[in-house]
Amino acid sequence: MTVAGREGKAGRGPLRAFRRGPDGGRRRGRLLAGLGLVTAGLLALHRFVPNTPGRLGSLLESFLFWLGPFTALLLLCAAVRRARAALLVLLVPAVAWAVAFVPLLLPAPSPGARELAVVQHNVADDNTDPAGTARALADSGADLIALQELVDPALAVYRRELAPRYPYHSVRGTVGLWSRHPLGATRALDIKPGGVTEPWQRALRAEVRTPYGEVAAYVVHLPSVRLGPGGLASARRDESAALLGGILAADPSDRIVLAGDLNGTVDDRGLAPLTSRLAAPERGLALSYPAALPLARIDQVLARGAHVPAARTLPATGSDHLPVLVRVSLHGPARP
Asked: 145 and 178 in contact (C-beta within 8 Å)?
């Protein structure tokens, strides 16, 4: 009886250890810690991830925000496994993500003086309800409305529906600007990438005479990107962004507001010719695409001679993008 009891006690120890799997648990803890370190490295050092092959760096930066939820999942796994060392390691990517993205989640400041409200929306060329879309955008009360993928016969509908509250507008190709304030000189911009042979006009510049002085407003639609077996196909978008960056660099205007479907996030290095020259929103995630399950904000409002306090999305329209409403606070005294 005593021997059997001892054998039972001795047997339960290894069995219990086997069931708990100390080696397997340690391996899982090491795996979680390793994934945490990799995630922290990607968050902090994403600029060093090479863009070849397949523009991996841009692909990572397009979805950088989602490393936060991934880190939260790792933390949950570590807590369930009671992997204390892994929990400590996972605090590193959690802090790195918080530094990068928590400011966007903070409450927006109250509106200040010399502010413009700008709506950016790719209305989609297959939108079946342009009238409803136009009315929803007008109800936002924005000072400026920038639209992309304007095609006939929907263009006539947007003109008709927006005219009562936005008497000034300009359309060049498939992009357009509607304004509550008078427009001055307007011109089309050539940002067509090489190799495009069909008609392609997707950028304009207009002078807006606001109560706070003149503002140069840009409305743009950069080429689409595709994700496939070869990675992120963004060469044409990057080329258009570089052309637009050169135009911005040569623009003498003190105040610039650029609104557009840029087909990229502000973290994406492919948009560096723009984001290095213009300020991005300081508050608000405003994930805009795809409308059914927004994963990224690719609809942007950026500014020079101003800061951009906040961005938010508006309710869905008939487009596959969500409209984005952005507040732009202009610097400097008003000028005639």
From this structure: yes
